[in-house]
Amino acid sequence: MKISLGSDHGGVDLKNAVLQVLKDMGHEAIDRGTYDHQRVDYPDYGKAVAEDVAKGEADFGVLVCTTGIGISISANKVRGIRAAVVSNEDGAEFSRRHNNANIICFGQKYQTAYEAAKFTRIFLETPYDGGRHQIRLDKISAIELENER
Ligand SMILES: O=C(CO)[C@H](O)[C@H](O)COP(=O)(O)O
């Protein structure tokens, strides 16, 4: 699969660790930065990865900041994006099964590289259940449309 990754300075180490694991798994990775510890603004990276996914240039995205919160909020502003902050295996599975999440987000402050790699693998391998969940996703899409300028 093709995966777009991004982080701010607070998530760069974890983003790089997940990037390496994804490459080792044979996935194609697009690294949207950041690339060092210089202070940057997380919305820039949330937007870049979210647009890759929304435009179909990537199948899924991975985003990391210090807490995972700001970068997920940013990504979720892009139409069609369902970015989920994940902190355990169950969340990795159910963000896909029930929410058809297309971006997984982590807080570097909370997740080890081992955990983030494991949660990302579960996320990528778990299909969407569809069925009754599509009714809810359609309602989310309707909220997006109603609030477009
Ligand atoms: O987690 C984050 C957003 O949710 C950011 O990584 C965090 O706010 C960056 O803060 P600072 O500039 O103090 O490193």
* CATH topology grouping: Ribose 5-phosphate Isomerase B, Chain: A
Spatial sequence of strands, sheet with the most strands: 2-1-3-5-4
Count of DSSP E strands? 5
What structural category arises from helix and sheet content?
A: alpha/beta
If you compute it from the alpha carbons, what radius of gyration comes out, rounded to the nearest whole angstrom?
A: 14 Å
The CATH architecture comes to: 3-Layer(aba) Sandwich
| CATH homologous superfamily (4th level) name | Sugar-phosphate isomerase, RpiB/LacA/LacB
How would you characterize the overall build of this protein?
This protein is α/β, with parallel strands linked by helices. Strands 2-1-3-5-4 form a five-stranded parallel sheet, sandwiched between helices. It is built from six helices and five strands; from the N terminus they run E-H-E-H-E-H-E-H-E-H-H. The protein is globular, with a radius of gyration of 14 Å. Helix 1 crosses helix 5. Helix 4 links the parallel strand 4 and strand 5. It has a single domain, classed as 3-Layer(aba) Sandwich (Ribose 5-phosphate Isomerase B, Chain: A). The relative contact order is 0.18. The site of ribulose-5-phosphate has 9 residues, from helix 3. Keywords: Isomerase. Its EC number is 5.3.1.6. Pfam families: LacAB_rpiB.
